[in-house]
């Protein structure tokens, strides 16, 4: 196992909408640390072209059904991981984010945009690749790269593929006319192929054609083989159980290190927690929360969506305030949720603070300054913030699902609830508040979480084992 192409639609620090970018930024670097020549393939969005200003052209592409494109080769800022940039300005250079326009509406041509990304990921593995460098294995991530295993199947499977599910809720479903428009063979459009309830699903293609499947926690790997979290794919996933592996994500412990975090006003460690108190005071001042060192401060950093259980947080917020607590929320997402969060701030000034938007520095300051981190996701393939929280001594309260269940130990490093409701969350919050009231108990829980190892190296070794098994057939 020498060469690996890691195809993804976002990667930190160039472009990020969620955890996939954290994984794509960190895992390839960790794999390189283990001796794998891992390279990224990433669309040339404006932020990517700007961030890799020195990238030079290595190939020109003219694929049927798509505008002419180029491949540039650059190096990831920070890690130096080689990045092939798919430069197709008609597709990727436009206002908005990677998937949506400035109004939060999906780009109308996403099937073409990510159809090209998938096609190029496959092409770079084929004998006809325009590059000298050809990988031994292709690693695809989420629906945006899901058609690549289908293309490789029709190219005679020159290299094996691993397809990782980061979130089964996003399936890349498009009208069937795209099969023809993307140049896929008509016979691929069947139940044994890329058809999904009479539509084309990029994700289904990946799940059907990839040699091996993985997802980002062992519990989610089990959950998606059944209703409701299989989200329509449970039959296929259960049938492929023998080739489905759950590997927990790691966290970037250089970026997320309370002892040396440039975003924080004060550093701290498990043995010297004083700095965490200063971070809390600074956060309270910053967010116009009442200065109160002993008040339990609850933090939330999240996409503001149904998945993340934000409605439950909104329901328990009055209870938190009644019990003397404070709540700091950072996030962006559904407009209705954003409005409800703003409503809480108006109702509880000095008690509830919210920042609607995306702010990396503030996300670090909330992780450091809060006492308790709320993450009651209805489902959570892995989740990163609960691991950041553990590392920062900010005790997580989480729903027993997916990676949350696999990373938080109830009563030892955090509080885990099974009952899927706002009331279930509230009961866990009450347990957390009782523990918080006893300084010795609380510090023991904080320190137990801070001592956990979520380094990428451990995950990267598991991926390496998976690649080797996939190559061995
Ligand atoms: P998901 O990918 O489902 O959103 P994860 O927990 O895997 O969930 O990853 C979310 C990532 O995005 C984390 O790194 C988190 O800190 C970050 N994040 C989410 N919302 C914001 C925000 N509003 N501002 C800054 N960072 C955010
Ligand atoms: C998705 C999931 C999240 C996971 C991330 C990275 O966005 O929602 O749970 O941590 O992918 O794998």
Shape field:
globular
Query: Low-confidence segments, ≥5 residues, pLDDT <50?
Result: none
- CATH C-level of the largest domain: Alpha Beta
Write down the Rg. 23 Å
The helix-and-strand class reads: alpha/beta
Fill in the CATH topology of the largest domain: Rossmann fold
Helix content: 25-40%
Strand content range? 15-25%
Distance between the termini: 13 Å
- The CATH superfamily of the largest domain is Glycogen Phosphorylase B
Counting DSSP E segments of at least 2 residues, the number of strands comes to: 18
Round the mean pLDDT to the nearest integer and report it: 97
- Tally of alpha and pi helices: 18
Biggest sheet architecture: 9 strands, mixed
Strand arrangement across the biggest beta sheet: 3-4-5-2-1-6-7-11-12
Q: Which molecules are bound besides the chains?
A: adenosine-5'-diphosphate, alpha-D-glucopyranose
Task: Give the number of domains.
Answer: 2
The CATH architecture designation of the largest domain is 3-Layer(aba) Sandwich
Summarize the structure in words.
- There is one protein chain.
- Helix 5 packs across helix 7.
- With about 475 residues, the protein is of the alpha/beta class.
- The longest helix has 17 residues, at about 455-470.
- The model has no long low-confidence stretch (mean pLDDT about 95).
- The two termini are about 15 Å apart.
- The chain has a nine-stranded mixed sheet, with helices on both faces. Strands 15-14-13-16-17-18 form a six-stranded parallel sheet, sandwiched between helices. A three-stranded antiparallel sheet has the order 8-10-9.
- It is built from 18 helices and 18 strands.
- The chain folds into two domains: about 5-250 and about 455-470, Glycogen Phosphorylase B (Rossmann fold, 3-Layer(aba) Sandwich), CATH 3.40.50.2000; about 275-455, Rossmann fold (3-Layer(aba) Sandwich), CATH 3.40.50.
- It has helices spanning about 20-35, 45-50, 90, 110-125, 145-155, 175-180, 200-210, 220-225, 235-240, 275-285, 310-320, 335-345, 360-370, 385-390, 400-405, 420-435, 440-450, 455-470, and strands spanning about 5, 35-45, 55-60, 70-75, 80-85, 135-140, 160-165, 175, 195, 200, 210-215, 245, 295-305, 325-335, 350-355, 370-375, 395-400, 415.
- Alpha-D-glucopyranose binds near residues 167 and 216.
């Amino acid at each position: 196992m020498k060469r690996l192409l890691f195809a993804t639609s976002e990667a930190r620090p160039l472009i990020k909408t969620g955890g996939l970018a954290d994984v794509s930024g960190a895992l390839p670097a960790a794999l390189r640390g283990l001796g794998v020549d891992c390279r990224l393939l990433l669309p040339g969005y404006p932020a990517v072209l700007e961030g890799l200003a020195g990238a030079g052209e290595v190939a020109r592409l003219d694929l049927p059904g798509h505008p002419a494109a180029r491949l540039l080769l650059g190096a990831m800022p920070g890690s130096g991981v080689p990045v092939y940039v798919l430069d197709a300005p008609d597709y990727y250079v436009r206002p908005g984010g990677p998937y949506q326009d400035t109004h939060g509406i999906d780009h109308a041509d996403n099937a073409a945009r990510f159809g090209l990304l998938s096609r190029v990921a496959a092409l770079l593995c084929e004998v006809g690749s325009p590059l000298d460098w050809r990988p031994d294995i292709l690693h695809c991530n989420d629906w945006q790269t899901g058609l690549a295993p289908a293309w490789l199947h029709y190219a005679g499977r020159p290299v094996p593929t691993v397809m990782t599910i980061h979130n089964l809720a996003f399936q890349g479903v498009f009208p069937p006319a795209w099969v023809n428009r993307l140049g896929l063979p008509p016979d691929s459009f069947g139940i044994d192929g890329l058809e999904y309830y009479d539509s084309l699903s990029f994700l289904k293609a990946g799940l059907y054609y990839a040699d091996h499947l993985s997802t980002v926690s062992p519990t989610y790997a089990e959950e998606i083989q059944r209703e409701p979290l299989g989200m329509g794919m449970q039959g296929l996933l259960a049938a492929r159980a023998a080739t489905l592996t759950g590997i927990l994500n790691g966290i970037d412990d250089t970026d997320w290190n309370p002892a040396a975090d440039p975003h924080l006003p004060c550093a701290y460690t498990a043995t010297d927690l004083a700095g965490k108190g200063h971070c809390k005071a600074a956060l309270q001042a910053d967010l116009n929360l009442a200065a109160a060192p002993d008040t339990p401060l609850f933090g939330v950093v999240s996409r503001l969506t149904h998945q993340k259980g934000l409605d439950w947080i909104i329901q328990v917020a009055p209870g938190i305030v009644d019990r003397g607590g404070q709540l700091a929320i950072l996030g962006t997402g559904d407009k209705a949720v954003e409005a409800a969060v703003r409503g809480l701030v108006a109702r509880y000034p000095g008690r509830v603070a919210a920042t609607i938007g995306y702010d990396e520095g503030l996300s670090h300051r909330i992780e450091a300054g809060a006492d308790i981190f709320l993450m009651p996701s209805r489902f959570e393939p892995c989740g990163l913030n609960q691991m950041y929280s553990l590392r920062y001594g900010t005790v997580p309260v989480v729903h027993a699902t997916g990676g949350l269940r696999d990373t938080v130990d109830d009563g030892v490093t955090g509080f885990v609830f099974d009952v899927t409701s706002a009331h279930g969350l509230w009961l866990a919050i009450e347990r957390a508040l009782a523990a918080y009231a006893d300084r010795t108990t609380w510090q023991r829980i904080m320190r137990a979480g801070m001592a956990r190892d979520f380094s990428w190296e451990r995950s990267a070794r598991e991926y390496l084992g998976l690649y080797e098994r996939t190559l061995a057939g």
